[in-house]
Write a structure and sequence with these properties.
Number of helices: 5
Number of strands: 25
Mean pLDDT: 75
InterPro entries: AB_hydrolase_fold, Pept_S9A_N, Prolyl_oligopep/macrocyclase
Number of domains: 3
Protein name: Peptidase S9A N-terminal domain-containing protein
Organism: Halobaculum litoreum
Distance between the termini: 91 Å
Length: about 475
Amino acid sequence: MTDSDADADARSRPPETPRRPVTDELHGESITDPYRWLEGDDEEVDEWTAAQNDYAEAVLDTPARAALADRFASRGRVDEYGPVGVAGDRLFQEVRRPDDEQPVVYAYDEAAAVGTDAGTALVDPNDWAGDGTVSVDWFVPGPEGRYLAYGVAEGGDEQYDVRVVGVVTGEPVETVADAGRTQADGFAWVAGDAPDGADATAPDPRGFYYVATGVADGDADADGQLDKTVRFHEFGSGTAPAADHVVDDGVGETTWPTLVADGDALVAQYMEGWERTDLYGYRGDPATATLDPVVTGVDAVFKPTIDGERDRLLVATDHDAAFARVLAAPLADALAGRRPRRATSTNSSPRRTPSSAASNSPATGCSRTTTATPAARWSSSTPTAPASGRSTSRRSRPSTGWWGSATTATPPPPATTATTARPPTWRSVGCSRSPTRRLSAASTSRPARRRRCVPSRRPSAST
């Protein structure tokens, strides 16, 4: 056999892989894996891997491969640009050059400079580790674009250190080490108090809210990254997560909070799977923040935004809306939990006492009974409430808060006796979407595809 015949024979058959069945009993079912031995880390596995690589090289080693190599390489040497973030008068963007292992975060002073060499390389992880295993996985510009917070992970473990850098100086300001699986949508800056006078220097931020987790320990039944706590970090304090103020430590393992803050207001979206969210809120000093219900116990998606004027809460929802819509309510009313007039209700849910609120230990064992009169008819653009309250056994916090009614359905009862305060009136301000594209709670961090908005033509409540 000639060498060419030997090469052809080698390309015709891949190396044999021995079958060594291993059977596991899982949930009453027998599952057999014939290749479990390949999960080992021994010399036999190394030899098998080398033989597979030799086979692949023999098959691909053709004259056409060499001719195409340069063309493929040139086509792949392109710059990659991330989305642009805006804060104050500055713009921020991740850019990855062909020779970069990791993208670099750039800051720009004007829109015309975005994507050019006029930007400032603010965070360059390529300078940290030669093998490119240390990365910046997310970043959030601070108020007025004076600071930038970003998450640093090593080896893709999603165990982040939160670092803050000054945009003008490029110097590090502080690091919150071992914050856990903190993400951009679980991070929200809190601006400092407005300066006095037109020429006053903008203040430093007050701090930031963030979702901290434990450490992944490799045990699927006790993954520390599923232990989540909403915290507030005082800017420049240098405190570790364990010393930061606890806003809520009652987050369930399958619940992922998204945080939105503006001024002294905080709204937390708690995602329960893919098609349900609960909203909680707070307004006041962030150093003593706790979360109170805004909209809970409704099987629908609610995606909140606080408008720039801080006077309205905007919510995109698919509740009773096949095409989805955006609703608006006065922010102060929404976060104060003001509800429609109703009769006295009883609730076996224990309320947080001042001591329990301070320790952030949520009440448990929720159930409720109620006798309530129908709510007044609101504008038909207001979503319809469920007919009664519902247990929130999936959460350890009572399901209270307010919710409006477009019909004679009874809104969920409050946690204590009835209130006579007027509810925040929802008003539809949104646009229609395709009914085939369901609003997803998991899409909060992804920009939605731009659509042409059309006025909603719904009959009035009086028709």
